[in-house]
Automatic annotation (TrEMBL):
InterPro entries: HGPRT, Hxn_phspho_trans, PRTase-like, PRTase_dom. Its EC number is 2.4.2.8. Belongs to the purine/pyrimidine phosphoribosyltransferase family. Residues 18-163 form the Phosphoribosyltransferase domain. Its main location: cytoplasm. This is Hypoxanthine phosphoribosyltransferase. It catalyses: GMP + diphosphate = guanine + 5-phospho-alpha-D-ribose 1-diphosphate; IMP + diphosphate = hypoxanthine + 5-phospho-alpha-D-ribose 1-diphosphate. Pathway: Purine metabolism; IMP biosynthesis via salvage pathway; IMP from hypoxanthine: step 1/1; Purine metabolism; GMP biosynthesis via salvage pathway; GMP from guanine: step 1/1. The keyword Metal-binding applies. It is found in: Cytoplasm. Its cofactor is Mg(2+).
Length: 183
């Protein structure tokens, strides 16, 4: 969906489809260099990471394996507890493998910090994170993010996998949602 179709729901367009693709290509070049000569498993975190996984995997000019996890915080109001449960686990045994978690946004950082320690306990060769967007709270979290597309303000952003009540995920651009939509 083009963002023009929901223009009145948005305060602004934060990143256009073209800017997103250019950023992903830039990140892909760094990933290629860092994992040169190594096998790599990229792990997407459902559902938001579907778009960035699809584009990142295709931007990488090398073989990668892809796997998926689905996780959920316990209860909607307890996200800050950092307690996460696995709804869908990896199909892959990651022991002795390089793992790169790919996500579209790190907000509080709790999901990804939990995920990194969970995957690290399975004996991989390495676990790292690539995220397209990162919010300020996550900058303060003790989670080491190896690849960041953009640091963004603490605003409600939608599009390119990011939703509000499951809508806007299929919007090509990333935009700031207008308060009248969610308040
Ligand atoms: C988003 C995103 C991250 C998580 C980050 O997923 O994909 O996994 O939130 O938030 P945190 O840094 O505060 O932990 P969400 O829970 O919205 O699920 P979704 O991907 O299915 O939309």
């Amino acid at each position: 969906m083009d963002s023009a179709h929901v223009e009145s729901d948005l305060v602004n367009i934060l990143f256009t489809e073209e800017q997103i693709q250019a950023k992903i290509a830039e990140m892909a070049r760094k990933i290629e260099a860092d994992y040169d000569g190594e096998e790599l498993l990229v792990v997407g975190v459902l559902k938001g990471a579907v778009m960035v996984m699809a584009d990142m995997a295709r931007a990488l000019n090398r073989h990668v394996e892809m796997d998926w996890m689905a996780v959920s915080s316990y209860g909607s109001g307890t996200k800050s507890s950092g307690v996460v449960r696995i709804l869908k686990d990896l199909d892959t045994d990651i022991q002795g493998r390089h793992v790169l978690i790919v996500d579209e946004i790190i907000d509080t950082g709790l999901t990804l910090s939990w995920l990194v320690s969970n995957l690290a306990s399975r004996g991989p060769k390495s676990v790292a994170i690539a995220t397209l967007l990162r919010k300020p709270d996550a900058v303060a979290m003790p989670v080491d993010v190896k690849y960041v597309g953009w640091d963004i303000p603490n605003e409600f952003v939608v599009g390119y996998g990011l939703d509000h009540n499951e809508k806007y995920r299929n919007m090509r651009d990333i935009g700031t949602l207008a308060p009248h939509v969610y308040s």
